[in-house]
Amino acid sequence: MNFDRSLIVVASLLTACGTAAAQDFATGAESGSSDMVGPQGVRGRETRTQQPPQTETQSSEQTNEAEAEQPSSWFDFDRATGDWGGHRTKLEESGVTVEATFIGEWFSVVDGGVSSQSSARALFDVNVTLDLQRMFKWEGASVFADFYWIDGPSLSADAGDFQGVSNIEADHRHQLSELWFEQLLFDDTIRVKLGKIEGNSEFAFVDAAGEFVNSSAGFSPTLLALPSYPDPSTGIILSWMPNEHFSITAGFMDGAATVDGVRTGLQGPDSFFNDDRSDDYVYLAEANFFWEGGRAGLGFWHHDGDFTRFLGGTESGTSGFYALAEHRIWNADDDRGIDLFAQLGFGDEAVNDVALHLAAGACWVGPWSSRPDDATGIYITFIDLSEDAGYTDDETVIELFYKLQLTPFLSIKPDLQYIIDPAGNSTIDDALVMGLRLEASF
Question: What global pTM score does this model have?
Fold first, then answer.
């Protein structure tokens, strides 16, 4: 335990120093782009779930178990701030769940790229879930609000890559990023969500890829229209899951960020209901097929804005397809196991920088029985960049990481990425990027 505690101190110092050194985000990256994805592992912001809401009996049983298993040491707390003297448990019993996560990272372009620079970024996320069933006996209803603060310069500006080396990279901002209401109906087979929504929590995500740092692991970069970090948008989601083996989800969302450059993450539903700044919308649909230990998904999207063609002229709307699959090939008696996953995406190279995306990876959770919460993985992602846009080469990234879970609330993750033909630009040398990410929940 002394080794883990020493690492906690070192990791905290690294993150604090890196955050203090953070500068303004590079000007060239200020407009929202498809390589800004956002992390998937933030507590409270998990991807959509088809599980029915907890009953009062289940909630009471879990509360009794939690009270019986109160940790004796701070290092065993599930969150760094603990149970707030029992008030956190009481809040959750009444239907109010508060989660907070800090992600800090320091990365360096150690070879190649545009500039051999080191930089640090930080994301602080606070979210609240209101279970209206527990609060007001409103069966199947919930409200969710999410706030985040982002800071730090552009890592991709130094690496020269297209896909996004870091999935927390974005322009400096603080905002109410999500605020939505969700209702489950007809024995929880129908789910309706209304409000300001993170699109990647509903579409194109791969759960098994959630630990990777590269942005393409979040969703295929061919999805240029997906309203996602740092610009979620107002929309409507409708999902149908008639049984445990199949679901279909559809979305109608504000598309003002893609063409018109409206920073939807910083505003409410204004551009969804008012066409003074933009009258663009995004239509999305995804079907999923589930089996024991895995799933496969097939998705379609369409943006109805007017796009400028790379070779001249305009195109009214653009569309794309994507597919994904993930499966656990090995399971231990506990939660440890090995997951494999793959991604495929298609875009219109006349207006989309990425015509094709192919990716695959593996994640091993709990590589040793003595450290069941650690994880390690490898990810390879390739994009075919549009010749119409003037790209001369395509980009491939290989990522390796090891996540060391120091306590239930704190982890550090050394990460290495090798970028071949960054941004398809033959004048930029292949880049080697190394860094360290710290994640803490409060």
Answer: 0.86
